[in-house]
Structures are given as structure tokens and as C-alpha cells.
Design goal:
Number of strands: 6
Shape: elongated
Helix content: 40-55%
Strand content: 15-25%
Distance between the termini: 10 Å
Keywords: Membrane, Transmembrane, Transmembrane helix
Radius of gyration: 23 Å
Length: about 210
Amino acid sequence: MTEVNMKKPQSGTVERGMYLLFTLVVVVLGWIIAAANTGIAYLTLGMDWIPISTGVLGCFVLAIVLRFLHCAWWLAALSLVPALFVLVGSVQYAPEAALDNRGVRENVLITDDRAGDGNAHHRFVLTGRSGKLEETLNHDGDFPKWKVGDRVEVVSDPKGVVPLEAASDIDPDSEFDTLVMGVVGWTGITLLAGRRGFVRRAAGRRPVLDAA
């Protein structure tokens, strides 16, 4: 793998100003990836696979750039932890914010449970003031919070784009906090990678995998 050349041709020392600029560019890149993926999630409401795909791609792009910045792999691998927060927050914030802003709230009665194989995929049939709802309240797992006969407040999208959810599960502020925590984590790791990368390059050290 080719190393990024950040040495002065005459002195052979790493230029501190250029390295600081490179570090700040990578910081901004992380912010752009997070913001762009949140925007993509807004534009593709109801198609979560799109922001999930672009988010995963963006997270790996940042990890590769961090490897060049740090001149080693372990901080790049560590960046995948806040990347998970960025991915979850950017994908989930948009639909929850849409339901919170334009959703219609209704108190309904659970009248049936169309459980799938092994009772792991629950599709609760709902009845409201105007009769049976077209949408079901879904829970993928063995231990749902609801059962037949329960009353629950749900929020539905009048445009029919975002799936119906229980009102208690809608918390866009929490998803935004998750996104911010991921971006803060990325920023901290990037600054550390810039510092350590500068020291490593100044000392002429190379990644173990490159030497192999």
C-alpha cells in the first residue's frame, strides 16, 4: 500500500502545518458523511436500505482515510465503534422526526397477533375509532411489549411513507443524540490519529502490514 508523502523534499521532515490541515480535512469529512447520510435518509423515507448502504460505505471510506492519516490501522478499526452510532442515528432520525412532526396519533385496541414462524415476528392487528387499521404494529423478536387486548397509542404517517409505530417508541431527540455522539467520537479519534500519525511519520515508522 502506498504511503501518503508528507515530507519536505529537502529536509526530510514532516511538515506540521500540512499535517494539521490534512487532519482538519478528515474531521470535516466525518461531519459531511454524517450530515449527508441524514439528508439521504430524509430523501428516501420508507427505503431504509438506501441510507444504510450509503452510511456503511461512508463509514468505511472514513476508516480508510484515517488509516492514511494515522499511518497505522488500529485507530481506523476503532473508528467503527462511533461509526455504528453515526449509522444508527442518521438512519433512524429521519423517519422518527417525520412521524413526530406530521404523524397522526390514535389510541387503538390490539385485536389479533399474526405471529410468524416460531412466534418471532409479531404483526399486531389494530382497531381504532373508524374500524380496523390497514397497517399493523410490528415487532420482530420473541418478547413483544404488547399482547392482544392491550390498548396502545400509535402514530401513523398520513402520507403512508413511514411505517406506523407506537408513540412510546418515537424519540427523534434520542436518535439525534446518538448521531452527535458518533460524530464526536469520530472527531476525537481523528484528532488523535492526526497527532500520532505526525509523530509516526516524523520518526519514519511504517504500518506493520505495509512492511509485511
